[in-house]
Amino acid sequence: MISQERVQELVHKAIEARKRAYTPYSKFNVGAVVIDTSGNEITGCNVENASYGLSMCAERTAIFKAVSEGSDAIETVVVVGDTEGPISPCGACRQVIAEFAGEDFTLILANLNGDTKVMTKEEMLPYGFSPKDLT
Ligand code: THU
């Protein structure tokens, strides 16, 4: 079980990453931190595009950065946005997170007011399609 102090520390890092969001279209800034099974911390922010559909969410930016730098499984994902309650990741991000989520996976959702929500992989994406289904 992750401590409240650790949650706050990681949310703070995601808030720092959020400052680098490129959002001229939505103006909705999101920050993320991914921790892989080796303990590496990788940050991400959302990066939008004039061709709107090419925009990338913060948590997928962080996951793709991590995988491209050699991370195998992901133990923790933190996402923060300026929402009323803790931010809720889109379905596409949930599917991508599930692809790399390790055994002891924890998802931490937060907003800028200090509200947080901690979830398991199954809570994040119940009965999701998984790489195991292909074997
Ligand atoms: N967005 C994220 O980066 N993560 C989320 O969990 C929710 C939505 C981004 C996508 C887009 O750049 C902006 O927020 C508005 O949808």
Automatic annotation (TrEMBL):
Active site: residue positions: 59 (proton donor)
Keyword Hydrolase annotated: yes
GO molecular function: cytidine deaminase activity; identical protein binding; zinc ion binding
Cofactor list: Zn(2+)
A Gene Ontology term for the protein's cellular component: cytosol
EC number assigned by the record: 3.5.4.5
Domain CMP/dCMP-type deaminase: 5-132
Binding site for substrate: 46-52
InterPro entries: APOBEC/CMP_deaminase_Zn-bd, CMP_dCMP_dom, Cyt/Deoxycyt_deaminase, Cyt_deam_tetra, Cytidine_deaminase-like
Residues reported in the UniProt entry to bind Zn(2+): 57, 90, 93
Top enzyme category: hydrolase
Key words, A-Z: Hydrolase, Metal-binding, Zinc
Pfam families: dCMP_cyt_deam_1
Zinc listed as a keyword: yes
Reaction(s) catalysed (UniProt annotation): 2'-deoxycytidine + H2O + H(+) = 2'-deoxyuridine + NH4(+); cytidine + H2O + H(+) = uridine + NH4(+)
One GO term of the biological process aspect: pyrimidine-containing compound metabolic process
Its job: This enzyme scavenges exogenous and endogenous cytidine and 2'-deoxycytidine for UMP synthesis.
Family: Belongs to the cytidine and deoxycytidylate deaminase family.
Protein name: Cytidine deaminase
Lineage: Bacteria, Bacillati, Bacillota, Bacilli, Bacillales
